[in-house]
């Protein structure tokens, strides 16, 4: 019998085809003009050999090898759910009693899955919060640095997360769009919470057709699809702030800066200007100064600056620019450029970030909330900036400076992760693995034997979304989707909420955790909360029953002529509609930031050479700049077992994109296997020659499951091609403390030895207990 079930994931809405208890196929969601290929991997992922069948405990943990022990090499022992629940309740109670609640790290960063009720991290944090508290994390790997910086400069993070100036306004009014880091088509495949319509490509093409000239300022030509007809300005990674400063210098020299706007809408121009002209430090930031830093010819910089001053211009940067050393600087400087052009708040002009980073950025839409869970309370209130997790484990009791605060780092005993994979997302995995050893107990809830599950002590098998009912929703999308359970839970997998409810029960607070609702009652509850929030905004959502039966709701579209420009009110009347900054204006100099006294993020935007870049001393030993961008074939580590990701690999290894000259210099051909290495680590990759990659730059997508040649050895080569064995784990600055993955130098050499098989998709060693 064949059944069709409405469903959703971060990579799109779809119908699941179900035959005899198996998901056998996928049909794209009808209203989606551009569903993308990722949904095709869903059946492979759900039924992968790498699914975790039962709860497991690391054998060494049972035998007392806990704090100080490197994880990843020991076999696992299967246990019953009852045993696992008991161990967790005892261990949680013990650590809370002996070390206090902050000894549990429940930051649990990660994308989890699209359903808003069974969102694993939300469930875990609710469980830990109601149980007495935990150390949590703030900000996101995606844009931690910008999230911390932008409230100081513009008084909002909307310029980063949405609602931003929409494509309708850009197409109608802008003539030029400068895209630092491009508008990568691959990134629009996904949206957190689900994508009902992938309208991102459609909207960009419409803007190009309306006469917007796109300029792709990026090391990689492929960051803007050919159809947009963009001019490609190749730039060395990590040097964008220098190019922006030089554009500013051209404007000042030509007298083209908008002095009225700088006086009426900005503060600190008198501090930034002398830095640009060189009066402050003796170095005028001219195009001739920037050319050798950036690799962009001085004439190109000059031409683009003057073109910006002559035409209605939109400025944007990919989120990747701030996941780099001193990632605050290009963002702050791009805002300064937009201010100098007087473009902020003018129809279809100004600045916003991430148009090319995720589906739904700049999609014209009505402002309505998304379906969401109630907020979580953490009575302890202790947090770290998310990407400082290794540092937290390494330096308990010491101070971490962050955004003007001194955080005393906790002494972590339990690490508990649900819905995220630090062995995917974190930088310098060899270092993380050593720091990871400081924990006494590591708990991981996962559907698959991903690297984080393999490096845990207690592993709990979670259901995938296809094994439960849920609701998908995102504020960046116009559709709310009913996710119908398609198949029963595989093997002994359980829902995150249910496994945690049992531990809460053993600890005496089941009813507070569940609020005595089951899955069906929770879905109705979340839906009703949303329905009520929509009503005052003019949208009457149907009843839950009608929604569930229909499979989705389409929120009404805006009127055809409507458009939105961010900061329009502020531009029109800065005194009546001030920004939420200390001065109510755009802060080109921030007294607050200056008062922190951080030399790695002073009071106005500056050029600081990254620690690792093509101009560094270190480039003599490691002459290639490695970008580790988002994968076109999966979502981070998710779907890596699927057909789309595996069809793209080269002899099972993640491709490394290389310029032909760099390949030739190393005697490499398309399809060769190489070892990519630096002082931190090494991985294998398969050569893919790309004519449109700036020489000296190479790129490997993130997400191939970490596969150390010797499990448990932090210095082992990753056989599969996870670039995070190579990336540096240093906060962008003491202000943002964001991840700086994009600042990474490597060398590449041909792999001539025998090629060991990739084992990351096969379960680890399991020892059945002796009866
Ligand atoms: N080098 C480098 N590293 C990077 C980046 C980069 O640009 N370069 N980008 C960074 C960015 S922007 C991000 S957002 C992060 C992403 O990092 P993550 O969000 O941690 O990556 P995912 O692979 O999406 O991890 C989600 C995990 O949740 C699991 N999961 C899914 N559904 C469920 C569920 O229902 N229950 C449970 N218990 N688990 C579930 C999945 O199997 C998966 O392992 O990576 C960061 N890392
Ligand atoms: N298919 C797919 N889409 C995704 C994701 C996924 O895993 N798969 N992940 C999602 C997530 S979590 C996020 S946060 C977003 C991230 O969105 P982004 O941060 O925009 O994505 P990236 O692919 O890391 O980077 C975009 C481009 O920036 C360029 N770039 C890198 N460094 C520099 C630099 O120093 N200067 C300049 N000028 N350009 C540079 C690279 O060539 C790269 O292709 O993507 C989302 N979209
Ligand atoms: Mo992200």
TrEMBL record:
GO terms for cellular component: outer membrane-bounded periplasmic space. GO terms for molecular function: electron transfer activity; molybdenum ion binding; molybdopterin cofactor binding; oxidoreductase activity. InterPro entries: Asp_de-COase-like_dom_sf, CT_DMSOR/BSOR/TMAOR, Molybdopterin_N, MoPterin_dinucl-bd_dom, Mopterin_OxRdtase, Prok_Mopterin_Oxidored. Residues 51-505 form the Molybdopterin oxidoreductase domain. Residues 7-47 form the Molybdopterin oxidoreductase N-terminal domain. It comes from the Bacteria. Residues 624-744 form the Molybdopterin dinucleotide-binding domain. The keyword Protease does not apply. Its cofactor is Mo-bis(molybdopterin guanine dinucleotide). Keywords: Metal-binding, Molybdenum, Oxidoreductase. GO terms for biological process: anaerobic respiration. Belongs to the prokaryotic molybdopterin-containing oxidoreductase family. PANTHER family: TRIMETHYLAMINE-N-OXIDE REDUCTASE, TRIMETHYLAMINE-N-OXIDE REDUCTASE 2. This is Molybdopterin-dependent oxidoreductase.
